[in-house]
Each structure stands twice: as C-alpha cells, then as structure tokens.
C-alpha cells in the first residue's frame, strides 16, 4: 500500500525541484539503448507516479526531446535539466500510459530503499550487468 509520505526530488544542480506523494506505482529497470544514451549509463532505474501525486511547480528549468525512435514505437518526451544536464522526467505517449510520469529514481530522496520489480529490454543488457534479484515489495 502507498503511504502518504512526501519526498523531494531534484536534479544535480537543484535548478529543478519537485515532490512526489506516496510510494511509486512501479519501479523498473530499462536496458534499451535510448535510455542508456540519454542517461549516459549502463541502464536506467525509473519509478512511475500518477500526475496527481507529483508536483512539478519547481521544475521550470527543463528542456525536452521528443524521442520517437523507441523500441516500443510510441513517442517518449524526455526531459533534462537545462543547467546541469541531469536526466529528468519522461512523459510517455498518452495513448500508451496516460497521466503518468516516469522519473529516474535517483532524483528522489530515499530511493535507495526501493527495489525494482521488472526489467525491460533485457536483450540489450550490457554483458557485465547481471539479472536483478527481484524482491517482493509487498511488505506494507
Ligand atoms: Zn540541474
Ligand atoms: Zn528504455
């Protein structure tokens, strides 16, 4: 069950701040090449929050890129900090996953306690990255 705890998220330079309410809808790791390129990392670890549980009032310094060459075929609007370049929120195609934001977990305080439940595009996984140990997160 989601708690009603509010957590703050920021980019590296803190020019963008936001808050999320409760626990994420889901937490996943993505190995697709687009996520890897944007994040400059071997994979991304992202959480999903519904629109009503995220306050982006303090995030007015984001640029965006419409990524249409995705493996799923739907366009993803990828945001980044205009000042420090941190990878920020992504907006999925509204026909595909409406009214949700995808947020890199690492932007959010306290994310270390969360465990991803799924992996996407494992066929693109870097050779040195092992399978996730999926632990049930049903522990209230
Ligand atoms: Zn920044
Ligand atoms: Zn991806």
Automatic annotation (TrEMBL):
The keyword Oxidoreductase does not apply. It holds the Pfam family GFA. SUPFAM superfamilies: Mss4-like. InterPro entries: CENP-V/GFA (IPR006913), Mss4-like_sf (IPR011057). Residues 7-115 form the CENP-V/GFA domain. The keyword Lyase applies. One of its GO terms (molecular function) is carbon-sulfur lyase activity. Keywords: Lyase, Metal-binding, Zinc. Transmembrane segments: none annotated. Belongs to the Gfa family. PANTHER family: CENP-V_GFA DOMAIN-CONTAINING PROTEIN-RELATED (PTHR33337:SF40), GFA DOMAIN-CONTAINING PROTEIN (PTHR33337). This is CENP-V/GFA domain-containing protein. It comes from Dendrothele bispora (strain CBS 962.96).
